[in-house]
Structure formats: structure tokens, C-alpha cells
Amino acid sequence: MTAINKDTLKQIRADLNAALKTVTAKHGIDFNLGIIRFTASEFRCKLNATARGTSKVTVDPKVAALSANTWRLGSGYKPNAVYNMVGIGRAKFVGYNRSAKKYPYIVQVVGSTKRYKVSPFSAKAAVDAGVVA
Description:
30% helix; 29% strand; 4-stranded antiparallel sheet; 2 domains; 6 strands
């Protein structure tokens, strides 16, 4: 092979998945081959392995960060409560992004999958206004 391209990567991925199936059958470990990044001369990917029979509960880091930073919203904050957000409508807090300085809070519109980033000022104002029944 002279260079790596998309077509060869498709074949390589299929071969790797076939090889990992034999390892899965032998050892009882499920494998997941992640995104493959490549150049003309090399490629790299992430390989995740999970033992069968173990329950892996994943917690979204933004949800965990919200529970750790609820003190910033004040004493009126109630988990899973619906608040009236200006410009958004009825929404509830679903996450907090630590690295976002301007809009760290994440809210989701009730009855929809739409999510918005909200500033600390807007979040505190919604909590101070109270829970919407």
C-alpha cells in the first residue's frame, strides 16, 4: 500500500471489526472501534472495551456539573423544576458547562428536544422569578 485513503480505511475497519469479533467470542469483552483519523501515511483511532455482564452507568459530565454548581443559582433552584425563561419560554435546567464563561447553563424547552445556552444572569433571573406550575 502506498497511501491511506477512505476506501482503504473502510476495508481496514471491516477487517479490524472481524478480528475483534473473535476476541469478543473468546474473552467475553465487547469492543467498539471509534472514529478513525488519518493522514496519507498513518491513522489512529480509539478502541473502547467493556466486559460483558458489567453494568456501565454513564453520567453526562454536564449533568454532574449542574448538580455541583446549583449553589450559583440560589436557594430558589429546584431540580427538574420548570422555569419561565425570557425569550425561550418554559424550560428546565439540564446541564452546566464549566469551560463556557459567557453561557455556562444549558436549558431544555419543555416538550421539545431544543436546548439553549444561558448566561448566569438569565439563569439566576429565572430562578429568582420562581417555578412555573
